[in-house]
UniProtKB/TrEMBL annotation:
GO terms for molecular function: carbohydrate binding; catalytic activity. This is Aldose 1-epimerase. One of its GO terms (biological process) is carbohydrate metabolic process. Coiled coil: none annotated. It comes from the Bacteria.
Length: 326
């Protein structure tokens, strides 16, 4: 694993060759240094090759092509469970989230890494550029997908924000067409849909996802048809970020929340973070679910990216840090 360090007028960042993970990022704001991204406490200490690359080095942002992690068995309401006929992808989230990427180009404030996919894969190659925006507290990223042949595939970006210690002190703001609770958390016939982050159905009653941390260990939803960027405000610091991206390509946002809720290696009940993940996917299910008719794309929200042989697809996203004014 190789570390690549970036610096620009308003911050510093570290990008790793492993899964092209953004391992760390500091934004320099008038009020001080701001670290919005999560960082696993085990980073740099795990060398077990059986643990996927992006989990060995679980930092603040990486890319997933395809976007998907399973599950192994059908779960949730019948409309979802009936679609889960394929085994989980290996590796989860595709080669992008596991392999060692190679350097293409580097400057003081920018790094471009590339990864060739297996010869039988729909995708021929990925390139990922991460760069600080001179003159502002902004980190920009661009993923370029080079298709080998035409077809469709789920795609996702995977920023993860840190969680404050005190309940409710991270505020999330997002506008979307409709939201759905992850099928693994919903029984057949139970309520799955919601219209706002402040009232999300759960097995007990409802969850306020607009203010984190929650009084639960794990939760996950998809905000379908995002109509603007995500804003996340760390209330105790009066600092926040705006996450903006190519919503015409990745129309939804998955929120994956865990607060010391995952056991086993390398987690061991230690990890705290909230993934705010722009996606063209049906949750983090197998890409085979995302590329066929499903309860999300039947409502007009694409759950996969259409690739044309030889035509690159460019997907941009940016994280802009800001101070909250009184």
């Amino acid at each position: 694993m190789t570390e690549y360090r970036l610096s620009w007028s308003h911050g510093e960042a570290v990008v790793l060759s492993t899964a092209a993970v953004l391992a760390d990022c500091r934004f320099d704001l008038p009020a001080g240094a701001f670290h919005p991204f999560a960082r696993a406490p085990w980073m740099g200490t795990v060398d077990d090759p059986n643990i996927i690359g992006h989990l060995r080095e679980l930092g603040g942002d990486f890319v997933c092509v395809p976007f998907g992690a399973g599950p192994a068995e059908p779960i949730g309401p019948r409309a979802w469970a009936d679609l889960m006929t394929e085994p989980p992808p290996v590796p989860i989230h595709g080669p992008a989230g596991d392999a060692e990427w190679s350097i293409v180009e580097q400057t003081e404030s920018s790094i471009t890494l590339g990864l060739d996919y297996p010869e039988n894969h729909l995708v021929r190659r990925l390139e990922r550029t991460v760069s600080g925006h001179e003159g502002s507290p902004v980190l920009e990223s661009e993923l370029t997908i080079y298709p080998r042949r035409s077809g469709s595939i789920s795609v996702g970006l995977h920023p993860i924000l840190r969680l404050p210690e005190a309940p409710g002190r991270l505020e999330l703001k997002a506008d979307f067409e409709f939201g759905l609770v992850h099928p693994r958390l919903v029984g057949d016939g139970e309520s799955q849909e919601f219209a706002g982050l402040d009232s999300v159905p759960s097995s007990d009653s409802s969850v306020d996802l607009s203010h984190l941390p929650l009084e639960m260990a794990n939760f996950s939803v998809q905000l379908c048809g995002m109509t603007g960027p995500l804003r996340a405000i760390f209330l105790d610091q009066a600092m926040g970020i705006e996450l903006d991206w190519d919503r015409a390509i990745l129309p939804s946002l998955q929120i994956w929340y865990t607060d010391c809720g995952i056991d086993g290696a390398p987690w061991h009940g230690q990890y705290r973070g909230v993934g705010v993940e722009p996606i063209a996917s049906a949750f983090d299910l197998n890409t085979a679910v995302s590329t066929q008719p499903n309860p999300i794309n039947r409502r007009g929200v694409p759950t996969a990216v259409a690739l044309n042989a030889g035509v690159p697809v460019h997907i941009r996203h940016r994280v802009s840090a800001f101070s909250v004014k009184d």
